[in-house]
Amino acid sequence: MLEISELCVDVAGKPVLSDISLTLQPGELHVLLGPNGSGKSSLLAAIMGLPPYRVTGGSIRVDGVPVNDLSLRERAALGIGMAFQRPPSLDGVTVSAFAGAMGAGATLAREAAALDLSAFVARDMNVGFSGGEIKRWEILKLFLQDPRLMLFDEPESGVDLEHVIAIGQAIGRITRTPDGQGRPRAGLVITHTGLILNHVEADRAHILKGGRIIHSGDPRAIFAHIQTHGYTVPETA
Amino acid sequence: MDDLTPQPKDTQLLGDLTNAERDMLHDVGFEDEATRAGTSILADHEMRVALSNDPGVEILPLNVALKTYDFVQSLMFGLVDPEENEHIRLVAEHMHDPLGHFIWVKPGAKVKLPVQSFSLLETPQGRQFTHDITLIDEGAEVEMVSGSAVPGNVQKGRHISIGESYMRKGARCTSVTVEHWGPEMEVYSYGYSQLDEGASSTSTAIMMSPIRHHTSRSVSTLAAGAKSASQAIVFAPEGTERVLATETRLAAAGATSQDIARMVSAGGTIVNDAVLIGDAVRTNGFLGCDGLKLRDAGEIRAVPQLRARAEGTQLSHEASVGMIDGEKLNYLMASGMDEDAARDLIVQGFLELDKGHVPADLTARIEEIVAKAKSGGM
């Protein structure tokens, strides 16, 4: 579903990602681990097409379609969706008004209850939300958008343990549920703590450091290695 | 004044409204007279309706009120000098037969249904000069809806109005004003209010229809412990110029005010010149002016002024003017919205009313009016 090949990205002329290659098959959930500043969020932004990230080399394909030259809106229409780490506040724009504009009022009623966000529908988007509320809202937003490829930017940061479980379950549920047209989805989760790995069934993990993927493998093995050795390449690799 | 016995002049229906007039007024908040505590309708150069359904409310044409109650003379031009400027002088010169209403909410009255008052200008190129006086007497409580409307064929015309509002000790008023003048009209409205000790006013102004020029000046003076909270949502499409000039004077200890203006220019010009004066100890005031520009054309000018004249007055302001935040647009577009839909959602949100300022019974109706205005229906 997602094929990234030899991708290089810069911001204002400064390279932030080099020679990234990554493939997600339909139905898969991958986790990208790395220290702060390693380029994790830059990779998601480059896939989504957010400024100011600029692809300087390599390619990104979604369902075989090259997206390098597509606008943000065109990428979303192609089926890419993103749960933001720090979304902007939208004063006056209620969750229900947003869902209405998305034509997803019925989905909102159903999924808000599942994410314990029913009381939020009348609130302005991201205004006064706690860290955990923002993360749950961002996943609810993906349910409303119904994308095929989902990008989760640090979904557990700033979330209490109780809600990390709920967020992990929600990520698992949306990833394993076919989209509105019955097609399998795929997801890419980035995390620097790795805590989310305790609550999602990831198929593969990658370590990103210094703008490069330095290792890929079994998620639990990689998480165990990072906990004792930091973001290094396991000797058995 | 408090020793005056209320007179049984609570029902006066001077004329009737046509269905077309009712439809026109409905767009700015009018409801059937039977569902309101009182109704005042001014059409062109006549008071068409001055009607009360509540013994606590008296509504009279101003020329009748002046002859009925001696004290109305002292209320008239009690808050503004008839020589203050050329427009007010012009209205004052028409006072041989004053046009406007006198609304009196009697002492202690707790009025359950809203009182409504509207102006209609139905003649193309019409000239309308009005003077309204509102007296909310000691301890009275009332909700008010007011507005202006023109038929679709009225493009040009001129309207100059003076409004003087007196809120006596402990009075409370929550009000909403919805304006819909003709797109080529010139309007100058001057509103003066005096809030006596412990009085409380919460007001909302909705100014979203196209108009060639509108100057709206309001001056409020707050006595000890009086409270004022106002919000205005203002829209200026290309060809529209709106000048808001407000002056709030916290004249005695414990007076507080909060004035919020949210302004959107889609090519038009909006000037918000707000002055907040702290004249006494333990006064507290806030000015908030936020502007959003949707196009390169047009201008938003926000000029908040704070004048602290007494030790212990706390005055503050926040002002911002800018284009739509690109981060917000990208966030919505990443969800699959096209740019126009994302912009609309952001602008509609920016102009969202603080519902806590709108009378509870009127919230749904006002939301409907604002939604229609936002969608360009006005």
UniProtKB/TrEMBL annotation, chain A:
InterPro entries according to UniProt: AAA+_ATPase, ABC_transporter-like_ATP-bd, FeS-cluster_ATPase_SufC, P-loop_NTPase
Keywords associated with the record: ATP-binding, Nucleotide-binding
Single GO molecular function: ATP binding
Matches recorded under SMART domains: AAA
Segments forming domain ABC transporter: 2-235
One Pfam family, short name: ABC_tran
Keyword Nucleotide-binding: yes
Matching PROSITE patterns: ABC_TRANSPORTER_2
Family in the record: Belongs to the ABC transporter superfamily. Ycf16 family.
Listed PANTHER family: ABC TRANSPORTER I FAMILY MEMBER 6, CHLOROPLASTIC
Identification of the protein by name: Iron-regulated ABC transporter ATPase subunit SufC
UniProtKB/TrEMBL annotation, chain B:
Family in the record: Belongs to the iron-sulfur cluster assembly SufBD family.
SUF system FeS cluster assembly SufBD core domain sequence ranges: 126-350
UniProt-listed InterPro entries: Fe-S_cluster_assembly_SufBD, SUF_FeS_clus_asmbl_SufBD_core, SUF_FeS_clus_asmbl_SufBD_sf
Domain of life: Bacteria
Example GO BP: iron-sulfur cluster assembly
Protein name in the entry: Fe-S cluster assembly scaffold protein SufB
Classification via SUPFAM superfamilies: Stabilizer of iron transporter SufD
Species assigned in the record: Rhodovulum adriaticum
Family annotation (PANTHER family): FES CLUSTER ASSEMBLY PROTEIN SUF, UPF0051 PROTEIN ABCI8, CHLOROPLASTIC-RELATED
Pfam family, one: SUFBD_core
